[in-house]
Amino acid sequence: MSLKDIDVTKLARLRLGEHTTLIIISIVVGLLSGFGNMLFRATMGFVHEVVFINGSRLLHIMDGGLSRVFTPILPVTGALLLIPLILAFREEVSGYGFPRFLEEVNVREGKLRARSIFIKILSAAFTIGTGGSAGVEGPIAQIGGAIGSLTGQVMKVSRNRIKLLIAAGSAGGIAATFNAPIAGVMFATEIVLLGNYEMTSFSAIVIASGIATIVSRIYYGGNPIFRVPEYELLSPYEIPLYMILGVIVGAVAVLYIRVFYRVKDEFERLKLHPLLKPVLGAFIVGMIGIAFPQIMGDGYEFIQQALEGRIIFIVIILLVFLKILATSVTLGSGGAGGVFAPALFIGAMLGGSFGYISHTLFPSITANPGAYATVGVGAFLSASTHAPLTGMFLLFEMTGNYRIIIPIMFASIIGTLTARRLYRDSIDTVELSKKGIEIHEGREASILSTIRVGSVMRKHFKTVKEDTPINELLKEVTEGDSFYFPVVDDKGLLTGIVSLHDIRSVLFEEDLKEILRVKNVMTRNVITLTPNDNLKTAVEKFALKDIGEIPVVDIYNEREVVGMLKRGDVISAYNRELLRRSVG
Predict the structure, then answer these.
(1) Distances in Å between the alpha carbon of 496 and those of 399, 438, 550, 565?
(2) Among the listed residues 104, 81, 105, 102, the one whose alpha carbon sits nearest the alpha carbon of residue 93
(3) Where exactly are the structural domains of the chain?
(4) For residues 373 and 231, what is the distance between their CA atoms, to the nearest angstrom?
(5) Residue 30, phi-psi category: left (phi > 0), alpha (psi -120 to 50), beta (remainder)
């Protein structure tokens, strides 16, 4: 029996409660996420073996010497393999797609397509497997999320439940990939759900993450990804050093985010055919890889060397900035992948560099550079994603070393606070903020920021001319349903706004009502909106003067009134959207 043959109504006949049903579905999502991870890793390994390993042998790149000039051929091959996918599914392939995924989960309906699973598997395998500088966590989170979404659609659950199952699937994907069930849970709650979750959500995510990890451990074994030598906190005096490391990590994380999106913007402005941009990006990464092959792929092998303190100082500090550049170029040009693995790499190199300096200056009270490289891994991930718990637990589970928990706590929290102070957005939320989607101020602001004024404003409204007598205006007030009227000139262009509040001082002055005109009492400094503004902006403008209606003007002509927005209509629109998201 296939998953499609299962109907939630059949489960209902078994008199299962809502939470029991959700647990069963979460188990299914966890199983499928674990198998999805296996398929992804197998595809990635196949591409890496066929293109990168065999290509390196064929071109004698592994022999060193002048043969290394052929290195760019490997990532360029991956970029060429992407072209058919880009032609068929451009929006689902090119670049760092995780922000779009977050938008789908937190803002839209969360109904992902089955094809996205295979698109993410192939596109990431072609990019990372051939040497592109990117990570697997973005694609596997989206693969797991798509599995959760499809499961929810098949089971005909509500939209809210679908989004929960997407988060559960993402948790399963991350947990299975890194052999880290707790980090998978933290990733789903801190990053995918942006910190908005309930206990019911938490239980479903925990179950899916745990089941996916079991599937992964049965097939791959339970060993941690990185083998970390036993380090100890040699002295309490080391704590301030780890705190300083946190500040440095936070600052470099902001540099990473800024460079990443600056390079992306430059590639978007570049006058080159879109299909050739990933090829150019791959070529640039390959050129860097001639001298510094460490920056190619996910870099796990070289992270391990940094954790063991086996990379010399001058190289390790150069790798921090070269990896930032290589990752920005790979994803900014249109290659596919995530930013977790590069963040782990950068953190290891940055921590190792700091550790080298610290150990040189204070050899008697500090551990060797490998300890700082280990802490840097989790701290940099925390700072760049603004998710300290994810960074802490991922590092702990990836290394299996509990003794580093105190240093990583200090470095991660301080790194995250520093990064947030210097730059409001994480690497995952910059594009959402650029679109005007507010995710920092809670659910209400997030919902309001997704609704445009143009979809709520009233297009049928009355205007009054400047020379209209106050008596006539009062007639409009008593016969209509509005207390605010745009004031226009003879050409119909906005010159002010008049409200019942403006004329209340002359309501009982019959002589004045005959003499005064609208232009004598109207407000000339008009607060306006455009159809493209969102309702969050509208709410802020309503609060400026505690007004009930705002004129909506044309985008290209701020004096041409195209509608009126009422405060009550904003509240109604918010309630409708909230209801729409809550029901199936």
Answers:
(1) 66, 31, 11, 16
(2) 81
(3) 3-220, 238-439, 447-582
(4) 11
(5) alpha
DSSP string covering 501-517: HHHGGGTT-HHHHHH-B
Interval 169-204: pLDDT, tens: 999 999 999 888 999 999 998 888 876 666 666 788
* 327 burial type by CB count under 10 A (0-12 exposed, 13-18 middle, 19+ buried): buried
Residues 565/447/544/563 CA torsion (nearest 10 deg): -10
Largest Cα separation within the chain, whole Å, is 101
Distance between CA atoms of residues 430 and 449, nearest Å: 15
Q: Is 64 helix (H, G, I), strand (E, B) or coil?
A: coil
Distance, CA of 239 to CA of 249 (rounded, Å): 15
- Report the distance separating Cα 79 and Cα 411, nearest Å: 37
Q: Is 526:553 a contact under the CB 8 Å cutoff?
A: no
To the nearest 10 degrees (0 to 180), the angle between helices 313-332 and 277-291 is 170
pLDDT of 26 reads 93
Task: Please say whether the beta carbons of 458 and 569 come within 8 A.
Answer: yes
Q: Could you tell me the CA-to-CA distances from 330 to 9, 131, 429, 504 in Å, in that order?
A: 47, 10, 19, 64
Q: In 3D, which of 289, 378, 333, 309 has the Cα closest to residue 71?
A: 289
Q: Is the dihedral of CA 63, 64, 66, 68 positive or negative?
A: positive
Residue 3, pLDDT > 80, answer no
CB 282 within 8 A of CB 453: no
Decide if domain 238-439 falls under CATH 3.90.245.10: no
Q: Give me the residues paired with residue 464 across strands.
A: 487
Instruction: Look up tokens 């939209």; give the residue.
Output: 159
| pLDDT (0 to 100) of residue 509 | 65
Pull the structure tokens for residue 244: 């300083």
Residues 6+ apart with CB under 8 A from 557: none
For residues 72 and 129, the answer to whether their CB atoms sit within 8 Å is no
pLDDT in tens, 461-520: 888 888 888 777 777 777 777 778 889 888 889 998 888 777 766 665 666 666 778 788
- To the nearest 10°, the Cα dihedral for 108, 109, 115, 117? 80
Cβ atoms of residues 36 and 143 within 8 Å: yes
- Could you give the C-alpha distances from 139 to 30, 41, 93, 339, 343, in angstroms and in order? 16, 11, 10, 10, 15
Using CA atoms, how far apart are residues 497 and 359, in angstroms rounded to an integer? 69
Three-state DSSP at 6 gives: coil
Cα angle 295, 301, 305 (rounded to 5 degrees) comes to 100
Spatial distance between the Cα atoms of 132 and 238, rounded to a whole number of angstroms? 37
pLDDT of 318 higher than 70: yes
Can you give the C-alpha Rg of the chain in angstroms? 29
**In the block, residue with structure tokens 């709520």:** 456
Domains 3-220 and 238-439 share a fold: yes
Residues in contact with 268: Cβ distance below 8 Å, sequence separation at least 6, in sequence order: none
- 447-582: CATH topology: CBS-domain (3.10.580)
Which CATH number among 3.40.50.300, 3.30.950.30, 3.20.20.70, 1.10.3080.10 corresponds to the domain 3-220? 1.10.3080.10
Distance CA 435, CA 533 (A): 11
Residue length of the chain:
584
